[in-house]
Amino acid sequence: MGIYLVWWRSTHATTGPLPPPAIWSSDSSPFAPWTSPRRRRAVDLPVREPPVTTTVALPGAKVEEETKQKRADEYRLVLFNDPLNKREYVARCLMTICLLKEGDAYQVMMKAHKEGVAVVGTYAFETAEAYCESLKAQGLSVDIFPVDKDD
């Protein structure tokens, strides 16, 4: 086979590079004696059509609309008095989790201690929820409430 390959190269050698593949026809290639042209055919696959959603209004029928309940823009994080945890621990949790300054954390803790409840702050829902869950994980009694527009 090696001798045949040398003979083929010597008889079929070109002086320059092979022409670019774009000008080769699909039936011929520079390697035509050894390979048959391979044609790829696209197979029509079934396509899933999207479901048709047509609303038909019947005379005398009531139309029900789906209403989505909108979340409030801001939420209050509320701390309740906790007789189990020390006051210093509560203030330290407020400083580390809610990023309150030492004086603010102390004031919130003291208000919850004396009055039974204190507002830690007003936050967006995701932030208030994250702070609430983190403080609950530390053993504190906290909750979040939506802020009314007229407050």
From TrEMBL:
<feature type="domain" description="Adaptor protein ClpS core">
    <location>
        <begin position="71"/>
        <end position="140"/>
    </location>
</feature>
<dbReference type="Pfam" id="PF02617">
    <property type="entry name" value="ClpS"/>
</dbReference>
<dbReference type="InterPro" id="IPR022935">
    <property type="entry name" value="ClpS"/>
</dbReference>
<dbReference type="InterPro" id="IPR014719">
    <property type="entry name" value="Ribosomal_bL12_C/ClpS-like"/>
</dbReference>
<dbReference type="InterPro" id="IPR003769">
    <property type="entry name" value="ClpS_core"/>
</dbReference>
<protein>
    <recommendedName>
        <fullName>Adaptor protein ClpS core domain-containing protein</fullName>
    </recommendedName>
</protein>
